[in-house]
Design a protein that fits this description.
The complex is a heterodimer of chains A (293) and B (297). In chain A, strands 1-2 form a two-stranded antiparallel sheet. Helices cover 71% and strands 2% of the residues of chain A. By secondary structure, chain A is mainly α. In chain A, helix 7 runs antiparallel to helix 10. Chain A starts with 10 loop residues before the first helix and ends in a 5-residue tail after the last helix. Chain B is mostly helical. Chain B has 2 domains: 2-81, no CATH class; 88-296, MetI-like (MetI-like fold), CATH 1.10.3720.10. Chain B is built from 16 helices and no strands. Chain B is globular and about 75 Å long. The relative contact order of chain B is 0.13. Classes of the chains: A mainly alpha (293), B mainly alpha (297). Chains A and B meet through helix 1, helix 4, helix 5, helix 7 and helix 8 of A and helix 1, helix 2, helix 5, helix 6 and helix 7 of B.
Amino acid sequence: MKRTVFPNRWLPYALVAPQLAVTIAFFFWPAFDSLRLSLYRASPFGDRLIFIGLGNFERLLSDPAYFRSAATSLLFSALVTVMGLAVALLLAALANAKIRGLAIYRTLLLWPYGIAPAIAGVIWLFVFHPSFGVLPYLLSFVTSYQFNWFLKGWVALVLIVVAAIWKQFGYNLAFYLAGLQAIPASVLEAASVDGAGPIRRFFAITFPLLSPVTFFLFTLNMTFSFFETFGLVHAVTQGGPGDATSILVFRAWKDGFDGLQLGYSAAQSVILMLLVIALTAAQFRFAEKKVTY
Amino acid sequence: MAASTRVATAGVATAELAGRVPATRRRDLSGAIAHAILIASVLVLAFPLYYAFVISTQTLDEVTSLPPKLVPSTNMLQNYADAWARAKMGRLLLNSAIVALAVAVGKIAISLLSAFAIVYFNFRGKQLVFWMIFITLMLPVPVRIVSTYQVISVLGWVDTYWGLTVPLMASATGTFLFRQYYQTIPDSLAEAAQLDGAGPLRFLWSFLLPLSKANIAALFVILFVYGWNDYLWPLIVTNSPEMRTAVIGIDSLIPRTSQLPEWNVAMAAAMMVLLPPVVVIVVMQRWFVKGLIETEK
């Protein structure tokens, strides 16, 4: 804490007022209102709310579609995060050498981060387009299987996973490269002298030393794939075909704004909120252990 | 020193004994591999964008022909003009620019002030304020979709720039970033300013603000990109086509199954929407990287 402080009674309150006003109006009030709303359902004519206690939660937890949606979310996030990071780490480790022009490579890797998930989705939608896309065209030489994501749920899921990874991949790679360059060569040389092969060196030294970078990228990719991919799903698949790509955030939006089931959507918000709180708590506990520096 | 040299020499010796490639040639080889991997990565990443650009220059016949043509064609101006007119791109891009700039500037201003209050003043309820700001980390828009919309409609802000921007202006990240930075500034600076008779606002304006330039730039890049690309909030809070932002507004141009497959026009629109945030990242790259790291701390 600072020793020097300005003696002033009212000024600090004036300084925090804008932040607190926005926080209370658009964070706390809606959060509490979600809690309240989750205990109600709208009357048939939508003109008033009927208190139903935990009815919405009972309905959610007995709805197989909701569990499918949770499983889809988990699978999607895991694929985007784990695959995205694993491939980036592998390539970064292979490309870890003193080379010229690293700054240029960094520029050429970082730009896709600026593309909105929805726009990334539209571009990949065309790459995957069953009639005109270049990918199904090339695959048609190899197999007669129809990679039509309009009809096949798993192809639709692959489509949004690829679009999401594409957007994130460059900076995953850039951050791993930077992390690797920071590991002193002498450490690895010493292990090499001790007879450790490249794979052993990677798992015994490089990977643990990179754990802060991995932790940082893991959190970023997880948050991204769970919450910021709404636009990707909305613009490209609309949760379909069927509900093959209906991730939790998309379902909460659809039930609330498409189906106008406000209480049901609010109950989903409450569950999402618990999830974020758990994830944040886990993140802080993990960060406290300092990973390995 | 001598010992480590001996060990290193022994290392090279054993490597040579084992018939491995000498160190210098190995370094050349690993450099070549590194360049090859990085160039391949860059090309793979660039391909979809190149493909989208190529499509945006073709005629409808070329777009729908097989095998797909992967070279630019002659219809570029026509497609971009069509996209501009049909989606009313001018208005959409203007809306996106207003939203991105307002969110970035508003959030930076709000968090600068609250961080200043938290670091440079002692006041009752400081802990409470700090925790209230901290908790917003756990309440992103998707977890309070319906209720936040209801607040906006009570305020009469549906379909307005207020509704599009103000709710996105508060969050913990900016405040924490500036708080952390202020704490590294030596106390002597504030003491000197006080001795010179500068009041707190003078100190903020003439000392802290110029010192915070790099942090402001870093936060600006992150927030601009976030504001430009945000999808869920503008989708909820706007109804009329005039108030849509660009990422949502081009939805009408994406050909669905039953429509004429005018992907050339759709891709022209996509190119126009993706360009501003990508340019900001490339031009302000140094601050972008700083911002990515700092906001996650």
